[in-house]
Amino acid sequence: MVVHEITHSWFGNGITSVSLIHFPFLYRWTHCCWFLCRHVNACHFWLNEGWTTYIERLLLQIIYTPAHRGFSFLIGSKKLYDDLKQYQSTPRYQRLQIDFEYGENPDDAYSSIPYDKGANFLLHIGKFPWWHCFNWLLLRRFGGR
Length: 145
Known about the structure:
Blueprint: H1 2-10, H2 45-63, H3 66-86, H4 113-125, H5 129-141
Helix pairs in contact: 1-2, 2-3, 2-4, 3-4
């Protein structure tokens, strides 16, 4: 948990640095333009938490071993599966980006979904060749080998 919160200060809070107010035409594409997005409301909660969880697990690989990182993803997958089951009656709470109704309490949708589904999404797109360059830059930033 400490590593997760420290990761917020290193990386997670900076991932959403530009306001959509300045780029309203991009609002529909926030799921693929995360770098232009700001955590302007609870709809984009996954951007902060998904990236922070992903980086937290990358740090586990640096500090310990790749097996530690994989085990953390395995534990997160179990939590994610349980939470997806919990929200079967409200499938919109299973999404990464939730469009809340006016007056709806975002805490009703709080779960591990934005954390683990976001991190798993980033792990999935990490299979593309260009992602290795990105991970290499992250490892360099955090002083990894």
